[in-house]
Specification:
7-stranded mixed sheet; alpha+beta; 7 strands; about 30% helix; single chain; about 30% strand
Length: about 150
């Protein structure tokens, strides 16, 4: 496994993986009427900015096949996204990406994220503490049930 910084040129490829993850992984915790608009939404405008600022880490195999990616927003000290190819789960890819995202964080502030319901156990294993359940106002127009989480470095 190798890692590199994601760039704005990667947005379409990364978003395709994210869409697949929403359809295949998140569907275990969300009904079809939420999955459909969520998975059909385009990349948010902030992706261009965050990837342009170097806030994205891409994991690939030796052949350059995308295994997963993570996006970190340094302004909010927030993990914005972390997705792993559903066929490659449980192989340490997500944990390795998380370590690289946390290396971008300001250690003087808590790192925060909004976790999809299916991802809460993963983030707990990474040292995050569950806070309040929330309805994340997704740009697709759906209110995604999620859990606000935080951790110190």
């Amino acid at each position: 496994m190798q890692f590199r910084k994601g760039s704005v040129d990667d947005v379409a490829t990364l978003w395709a993986l994210r869409t697949r993850c929403v359809r295949e992984t998140c569907s275990s915790h969300y009904p079809p009427e939420v999955i459909a608009p969520w998975s059909a939404s385009p990349p948010p405008a902030q992706y261009q900015r965050l990837l342009g600022q170097g806030g994205c880490v891409v994991a690939e195999d030796a052949q350059g096949t995308l295994l997963g990616f993570g996006v970190f927003d340094t302004e909010g000290n927030e993990v914005d996204a972390l997705f792993v190819d559903p066929d490659r789960g449980g192989q340490g890819i997500g944990q390795a990406l998380m370590q690289r995202l946390l290396a971008m964080a300001d250690p003087a502030r808590e790192v925060v994220l909004s976790a999809s319901l299916n991802a809460v156990p993963f983030y707990r294993r990474q040292g995050f503490i569950a806070g309040a359940e929330e309805a994340y106002p997704h740009p697709s127009g759906v209110a995604l049930a999620s859990v606000r989480m935080h951790r110190t470095l």
